[in-house]
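Hello again,

I reread your note about wanting to compare the complex against the isolated chains. To keep things tidy I'm splitting this into two emails, and this first one only covers the full assembly. Below are the input lines as submitted, including protein chains and any nucleic acid or small-molecule components. They are followed by the predicted structure of everything together. The single-chain runs will come separately.
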Amino acid sequence: MSEQVLLALSGVHKSYGATRALRGVDLELHAGEVLALVGENGAGKSTLVKMLTGVVPMDEGAITLQGKPQRFANAQASQAAGILAVHQETVMFEELSVAENIFVGRHLMRGPFIDWASMNAQSQTVLENIGARFTATTLVKDLSLAERHLVEIARALSQQALVVILDEPTAALSQAEIRDFYGIVRKLRDQGVGIIFITHKFDEIFAVADRYLVLRDGAAVGSGRIADATEQELVRLMAGREIDQIYPHIDSVPGAEVMAVKNLSHPTEFNNIHFNLRRGEILGFYGLVGAGRSEAMLAIMGLNPQASGDITVMGQKLNATRPGDAIAAGIAYVPEERQRQGGILSFSVQDNISLAGLSRFANGPWLSALKESELCKRMTERLRIKTASPHTLLSGLSGGNQQKVVIAKWLGLDPKIVILDEPTKGIDVGAKQAVYHLIADMVKEGLSVILVSSELPEVMNLAHRVIVMRHGLQVAEFAREGVHAETIVAAASGLDGSGEHAHAAAPSIATPHLAGAAA
Amino acid sequence: MKSLLHIRREWLLLAIIAVIALAVGARAPVFLTLRNGMDIANDSAILAILVMGQMVVLLTRGIDLSVASNLALTGMVCALIGKAFPGVSIVVLIALAVAVGALLGSINGWLITGFNLPPIVVTLGTLSAYRGAIFVASKGAWISDQDIHDSIKGLPREVWLGLPALVWFAIVVLVASSVFLKLRKEGREIYALGGNPHAATYVGIPMQRRLRLVYTLSGALAGLAGLLWVGRYSIAYTELAAGFELTVVAACVIGGVSIGGGVGTVLGAGLGVLFIGVVNGALPVIQVSPFWQQAISGAVILISVAVNARSERRAGRQILERQGAAA
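Full-complex prediction:
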């Protein structure tokens, strides 16, 4: 690690109206090191990134890059100075080609016209360097999520960035792809690039970072070398309190069968999904991103019209053609993408919570504001939702709290079965813990939970049983007692080599990646 | 692979146009004569010019409903100037038309970016305002054939290298649009910001400037179209081309330009124009009553939009391994 300070922030302040997002943050980044920037949601990480990338101006403070003071007026100025960000949700142009996505905003020109030949050739070189297996002329909409991340990384590499900011870059990647990704991060670091790595996953921090900086409530509360730190210490710094037990103890014993699914199939998305669910049980659905889990759940909710199959809920046959049917049968579905499918950002917290069961607040033809606010208050307390008031807009809440509001909305319906689709995606450890305890409470009260998750520790610690899906097929089922991380990952990525579903020669992306990582 | 699909859709549209033309030609052979083809090309030329402007606006997720009013107002201004200054040359008039149209278009752009207003609201407003301005400028009077400047009237009747001048204008605009959208940085950035406005700010595309550019371009082309329209029909009056903006948007949509932004090609939009030209040319030939013609045109537009939407939705995901693909 070089001792040269590449990027320094000192006394950076930023306020959005009355909210003080950053209050006097200092940061030092050396060339050739990975700095983990950690903190709970709302701690100010995103604001810091936006300032470094020139998307929002800072109120006060100084940014120095290679000893020169900088003030980024816009995104172009920051990029020109050599700061590049790979964002959590890929910032891509789907209808454009890979090469164009790499060069967008700084197209190569020959005279007055765009030089497509050079752009394609240069992109192809960079793609080959990072081991991408698609061509520069592919349209981005034809790429998988993992491949899109490679495009973002290629964008960073092609600009010879001094500083690369990775903002939760692995949120959408599978285990195998993440390990490949670590390799690319180390390669960048060895080339002398300074890397700011933002993540909620502690294993990642310890796997790739050299130093850490913890933000809490807009201030830097601790920093140091990763080698000298422990997970406990980081968690304590982030939360400002001890979080000793992230996973609650699940002691409920599953009771009578509440739901049975047989031969749930779809022409292109999944085939022969079959399981049963018992009262007070947590059933985990594990698989890589894009394995068809969410699609199957949407089919149960009546949102996937091409699907067919036998679903029985409490002894009654359910043939949901719209979500209302499934809700009436006692099923609630908390979708994966909370902003797109779950919550309405421009509605208040209270309106979001009461949305799913409006008819229950009716007094004659009118909605009863009193009943609504009572439910909102109850849910806010039960789920410990951090909001200034019930009338705060959902967009004003942090990601973790938004997720709680979305869950609260469905719990307000008193469902018997709750399907949680990636309930902790992109939320911080404190919020995760709250969600886990919420799940434990739900099964204790006799609800049944289907937990769709790509985070292995989550399903292993919470679920009574785990069903593994791969390429739209149900490939394995494990009881909690018989669960080993390796077996589950092997089943999910198709490396177990056993069973009629194993497609050893399948042209999947995951296979070669995992093989490469294991070597 | 997808780009192949895209091309296929344009071929499909071309095939449909050919089938319609042949079917009509079978009933009325006059439809397939070169003369009729020229007529359709001539009729479609002004639409093609307007469609190029509309397309760049649609690419940014916007819409410009004021084009027909802009066309009529610019046409009226040119007619009035031509009447007042008989010695003015056609080059000056063309420059004037483009400049007035660009000015009117840039007003849309400024209103949209300056006050952060939805394009549909702004251009609906200017649709009425520009239309009203024609009445003010002309005091409600018609400028008819004998008062239209000779060079304005003469321009659409010129024939260069065997093709009518109007068709030449359309060809130049189509080629320029292709170059702009494919080979100019601004053109590519328009696709990018329409495809993902959020991402566009992150990569440093100057959104406001590009938006002002597209409305100015659309306006400039509407202005040019105004001069050509007045020349072709030898008349300028308040209700000139009223409602034509809908035909323009329809041609774009039929040609595969997405209202949702970011998707559309010059070739596709050009075929959309041709489609409307052929249908409108065919209906009178097979003696459909004028009352039915509008209804049929409308139905055709709705059907093609629905087909477009369906084919977009069908391009869904494939999770299960295809039979044989795994081998």
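For quick reference: The domain at 5-239 of chain A is CATH 3.40.50.300 (Rossmann fold).

B.
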